[in-house]
Design a protein that fits this description.
There is one protein chain. With 382 residues, this protein is an all-alpha fold. It contains 10 helices and no strands. The protein folds into 4 domains: 125 residues; 75 residues, no CATH class; 78 residues; 63 residues. The longest helix has 62 residues. The radius of gyration is 63 Å and the shape is rod-shaped.
Length: 382
Amino acid sequence: MEKEFYEEFEDMEAGIDQKQALVEESRKVDEIEDLNEAVRFVNDLKKKWRKTGFGESLAEEKLREEFEANVEKVYEKQKALAQKVVEAKEALIKEAEKISLSDDFKKATEKMTSLMDEWKASGNAGKKTDDELWERFNAARQKFYDRKRANWEKRAVQFENAKKIKEDLIEKAKSLQDSEEWQKTSAKYKELMDAWKAAGNAGREFDDDLWNAFNEARQKFYAKRNEFYEKLHVEHDEKYAEKQALVKQAKSIAGLQEYTREQTAMMKELSNEWKSIGFCGKDKEDKIWNEFRGVMDEYFAGLKSASEKRRANWREHMSEIISRKEEQIANQKRQIKRLQDDMTGLVSEATVADLQDQVEDKEDFIKQLEQEIEDIEKKLAE
């Protein structure tokens, strides 16, 4: 009986020593930085503790309390970390639900992939909690990918329609590429380009090749058009230079202010040459024409003024001639009066006949003068 008591006592002492050693071990948990490692460590200690048996002594109670307190530190850290994991995953769920409604599928896919990476790295909150959170997170993901798939199917139809439209536009572009109706065809190509843009995307598989074929036809036309206009610009520059020379000649003639027939003929010839040169480009034609027209107007205004002045001088001269002829007529009439007075009382028939001849000569001269005056007045009336 006594032997059994001592054996029991020795077992109790051994259990206390083991518990004391485990308490010492449990104090090391603060030194373990990796939480998972700390959890494994305390779980292992708990298994060892259970093997030490159950004691009711005060010493064992104190050891148990300290041991459990040290172990609980790890579990509290585990709970705190689990709560952070829950909060992080709740935030990821909220973001995933928001992204699931996005129509920017490319960016949303990249973001959803990033969220998945964050989810994997967020840690463990416990199987039950993790499963519940994952179900919500994955539901948001599936909602998005279902929408993305539906959108892709819709876009596939749109791609096919766009492809058909663009193939038709390519044929139209090719049919115009050899046209030389530059302005009309340029307008048609603009319409085709607007239709191309409105057709939308035909998908990465076809869109670049379609564009290259369409643009090749456009560029062939534009290259020919550019070549034409480059030549036309050279012609316009040459014609502009010719017209500048005509302006210079016209200014030289107008500057003389000599309004002779020769000068006027030269100015008219310059005008004919101007017409024969042709158009020199809308950006220059109006300006050079206004300059040339201004010189022409100046010259012919001067010509008109000079002509009016010459005519006025001529009319004045004609009026003077008429006045002189009228004086001659009056003088002849006075002479006739004297001759007729001289004939009165004469007996000699020969003398009377001679005087009568003189009167008749003067009367004829008067008629001649009157006719000349009438002719001059007709010219003045014209």
